[in-house]
């Protein structure tokens, strides 16, 4: 992978919780992070996060190049939604090159270094994709929050919030799990979540990013019956996605994303033998595509 003498190669992995950007200039690489750039949160917000991260990367490299000298390959959550994709591309600044793919595809490229394999990406959202030996690509999920994104952080957080609802209005007894969820919600709100009224206010403004911030609490309380049931269902949903991608169960499967390690233990035994560690990340896959 080599850039033209005057071109900065840039790979981007963007989702609902944040952005990772990897830039390469004359053999030097720098990685920076930024705000959310998943297209479900809006095109303007996505481009702002990406360009701010690009500015940080250039500063780290000691550069001040115009965007016309930057070639970007982006793996963004929501890129498979055609209207969001079109609006995002129309809003693009002038660039040396631009390739927009789903974050699932860049994750697949990074995880298996372009070789046949399957991935299930588990972050704020979830999606699965596979590259078959004959060159075919297949995908599953990616329908977005709140209707899809099974086994994701947002999916876990949304369902866990029901336990808080029940604990605060008397349908269930408050316990350590409900109190920990309230504490996590309170850190994301100007007012503590301590009663039905403050919870209603929190829920009325909660988006996928906020719900995903509750996922670590679910994992930490995995022995609680409700958390355990959610995590078991997440494992079953991962298996369902893999079987849809590869009914013969022959492709190696890499779990990727921020929740991959925590959810690996909940994958059914029948597919654990197919699990492999990803060779690289989504942002590394994006940089690989930028150099093609």
Automatic annotation (TrEMBL):
CDD domains in the cross-refs: ASKHA_NBD_GspK-like (cd24082)
Domain of life: Bacteria
Location of the ATPase BadF/BadG/BcrA/BcrD type domain: 10-267
Gene3D superfamilies: 3.30.420.40
A GO MF label: kinase activity
Key words, A-Z: Kinase, Transferase
Keyword Transferase: yes
Cross-referenced InterPro entries: ATPase_BadF, ATPase_NBD, Euk-type_GlcNAc_Kinase
SUPFAM superfamilies linked: Actin-like ATPase domain
Full protein name: Glucosamine kinase
Naturally occurring in which organism (per UniProt): Kushneria indalinina DSM 14324
